[in-house]
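Tutorial handout. Part one gives the primary structure; part two gives the three-dimensional structure as tokens.
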Amino acid sequence: MRTLHTSQGRLLAGALALTLLAGCTPDDGSTGGSGTTEDTAEGGGSGDEGVATSTSTPVTEGAPEGLEEFYGQQLQWSECEGSFECASLTVPLDYAEPEGQSIDLALLRAPAEGETQGSLLVNPGGPGGSGVDYAQMSAMVLSGEVRAAYDVVGFDPRGVARSAPITCFTDEEMDDLLSFDPTPDDASEESASAELMESFAQACGENAPELVGHVSTVEVARDLDVLRAALGDETLTYLGASYGTFIGSTYATLFPERVGRLVLDGAIDPGLSGLEMGLGQAAGFERATRAYVEDCVASGECPLGSDVDSAMERIPAFLDELDANPIPVEGDAAGELTEGWGLYGIIVAMYDEGAWPILSQAFESAFAGDGTMLMYLANAYASRSSDGSYEGNGMQAIYAVNCLDRPAEGAEDLDDEAVLQQFEEAAPTWGRYLAGDGACEYWPAEAGETVEDYSAAGADPILVVGTTGDPATPYEWAEGLAETLDSGVLLSYQGEGHTAYGRSNDCIDDAVDAYLLEGTVPEDGTTC
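Part two.
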């Protein structure tokens, strides 16, 4: 959902944008089920647990030394939110010291509607997306055949939502962060931007001193294997979207012998540096924006203009106007649409072409002096309500995970005119907005474990799905991941929007379903 690199901080996220734009927001913590244990790090989940309805029989064979207790835990499932079941999984805060502190992860299961083939674990992306909410919306995400065959299990990754969430800023402070000028115009604004990002990083260190260094994707992948074992599955069956593909490829690298059927949709290429990812995303959003503008102009009623090139130029010009003179919004605590909010409102509509007409209407209203509709879109991006409250902590967790996975490449890069020029050449519309490392320059911790080789030698075939017009995870990244994985198989969707399964066409859906249900692997390079 939230996929963006900005001068406020290089961000990468994405999934379920269409759901957000439709105004579908998950319930509050009631589906959680996670809590804290004795000797537990900050956080923990929320939610009312009912009487236990079932337990899972764990698979303990192959548990790493020192982790036998975690791998052998019995999950206590209880009814929650109607037909769903909730539980919590205990994992070590630090895998290097499993005898130390532990944290609880929130789980939600949608039981198979037929005879089960086992568990299908799902993650929607982010970093910061809630797998609990994703599984709760499985009827919108998965085909009926897949839901009939699998217990669909979602988990909130460590540091996210109900699983020991990292919360650095208050809602009001997050408003200040997101509404701030994304393109500082002078030394004073640049200094203010740097101070804001530094204060955010410092607040994360102060409010979550233990968690702040233990929410890396490597640790999430290790949690995933503990969950697999606790569920009683010999191998992992998994659907990851957007950033969720990075969790999946990291898992395959760490545990290739335990890979079952992995679908990685809207793929991230793990071999890219932070700078390379920023440039790729800039180009991806540029292509998606041009596709939107071409469609808008072809309608004959495009508020941006009647010529594609001039309509493209109108977008950054409009953001410049917001920088100088924000416009009012009605019924929202923000009060006005700033350049920062305007940026997010436009970007989120690139995730799905179904949102393009909404964006055109928002532009028309904004040009008439009313920013309400564009602010609605910005709120969808940020999982924010009009009263200024945020749903979950996704907009904060994204920094925490990314800054551990891909630390800032050095302050010299932030001021390098050559780097800025690269971004502007890659994306004339968006380049200046998408450069920079932001909070990661000040991050108070480093990841304890990293991965260098993502080939996952020995793993069974892994299905990588890419969309040619994907703005958030450009198609080239899917090609790169499929090539990096020894057993990677590339399935391509020729179309627009972020991810493909469940939102593109029957060709993609049928291929993914056949793989998940029967293990049928499509021919590498299949295009739909």
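Part three, for discussion. The first helix runs from residue 17 to 21. The chain has a mean pLDDT of 89.
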